[in-house]
Amino acid sequence: MLGCYDAVQAADYDGVAFPSTADLIAGEIREVGTFNTTYGVIAQNQTLPDNVQVGNTWDVIYIAINRANYLLQQSDKITDPAFPKLTTQAQARALRAYHYMNLLGLWGGSTQGYGYDGGLGVPLRLTPTTAIGTETAAIPRSSEADVATAIRADLDFAIANLTTGTGTTITKSAALALRARFELRMRKYADALAFAKQVPATTGFATAAATGLTSPDAIWQLAFSVTDQNSYAFYWYPSPGGRNEFDPGTTLAAAHPAGDRRLAVNVAASGTTLKYTHTATRDDPFNVVRYAEVVLTIAEAAAQTGDLTTAAAQLNIIRTRAGLAPTTATTAAALVTDILLQRRLELAYEGNYWFDLRRTNTVQTALPTYTQTFRNLFPIPQRETNITNNLIAQNPMY
């Protein structure tokens, strides 16, 4: 189980690369360092199938999936009553669902978003590769719909077999929040609302500082240490202690309303961010799931299903924490516009904005220089298409 979580912490995954890649292409992060052939071209929306970072992230996500699959297979053989089989398997299946959500997020769906007819999926592996042979044979991409079915089944199992709470491992609260995130992404607003409403409020959230890293906000938080480090502060800050690979995007500061307390966090005076600052120890936590996201999911899903009172009330929880006056929006469209802005500012540098643009089909509106809509999907790594003789098909136009 520790190995399964360790895979999520990898440098090419949530140790820095996955959320940063999503924020680079969304323009929330500027690449100002020397990784011009990897992060730099991603930030310019000119990613090609041979991009090393794209290939590394694809690989590490499938490594993480294989670890979860192996744990599920082998744990079925354990009969010791002292072994918490159901809760262990529930965590593994929630992790697997999270991985497939991320694969679909970057490489799947269609140019207009997620959950449309004919949406593209990824290779769906639900059993481990334990020996070279049939288990390691290449398989084609499944449809987006088939991958979505597997994601929902895994999260439903996790929800049924875990208890609520917060921490560095997946709980029922985290699984519910992930299910709500997925349904929102798939535009199943009533389902997103139903799952988000089941997530218990975290104690002290409404009055906590709007930094994005406070304990009352974290539902599932990856913990790092001086001996198990990540690269967030290393990439954000200059020497000593960093390489200043990233700076805030050029439009992010101006997107904050006057008086927004999050501005000083998201765009610090030094031209960095205060979300990741531990340059010496490199042990900044990374929040995979925050209660702020749950609140905004309830708000958006309520607005999309006609409950404007709930939408405004939930939105105002976030606005008040940020030092803003209550919303003046009175229509569903205006509320959703404000909610999406609050998501951008509240969840900055956590890898969410790109997926919001994709699911709302606003990539080309928000980023008008992105005229090649096929690039709304990342390219399948060249190695995958080459070694499978195109059994794993490339995304169109690459």
Defining key terms:
two-stranded antiparallel sheet, single chain, Serine Threonine Protein Phosphatase 5, Tetratricopeptide repeat, mainly alpha, 4 strands, 46% helix, 17 helices
Can you describe what's shown?
It is a single chain. This protein has 398 residues and is mainly alpha-helical. The protein has a single domain, classed as Serine Threonine Protein Phosphatase 5, Tetratricopeptide repeat (Alpha Horseshoe). It is built from 17 helices and 4 strands. The protein has helices spanning 2-8, 17-25, 36-43, 52-75, 85-107, 144-161, 172-185, 189-197, 232-236, 252-255, 263-266, 291-304, 308-321, 332-346, 353-359, 363-366, 382-387, and strands at 29-31, 218-222, 246-248, 286-290. The chain has a two-stranded antiparallel ribbon with strand order 1-3. The longest helix has 24 residues, at 52-75. The mean pLDDT is 96. Residues 44-184 form the SusD-like N-terminal domain. Belongs to the SusD family. It is found in: Cell outer membrane.
Measure the end-to-end span.
37 Å
Report the sheet-strand fraction. under 5%
Shape: globular
Number of helices: 17
Question: Rg, please?
Answer: 20 Å
Percent helix: 40-55%
**pLDDT < 50 runs, ≥5 residues:** none
For the biggest β-sheet, the strand order reads 1-3
What CATH calls the topology is Serine Threonine Protein Phosphatase 5, Tetratricopeptide repeat
- What is the overall pLDDT average? 96
Which structural class do you get from the secondary structure elements? mainly alpha
What is the chains' assembly state?
single chain
Instruction: State the name of the first-level CATH class.
Output: Mainly Alpha
Domain module count: 1
Q: How many strand segments?
A: 4
**Biggest beta sheet attributes:** 2 strands, antiparallel
The CATH level-2 architecture is identified as Alpha Horseshoe
The helix/strand order is HHEHHHHHHEHEHHEHHHHHH
Protein name: RagB/SusD family nutrient uptake outer membrane protein
Domain RagB/SusD: 272-398
Main location: membrane
InterPro entries: SusD-like_N, SusD_RagB_dom, TPR-like_helical_dom_sf
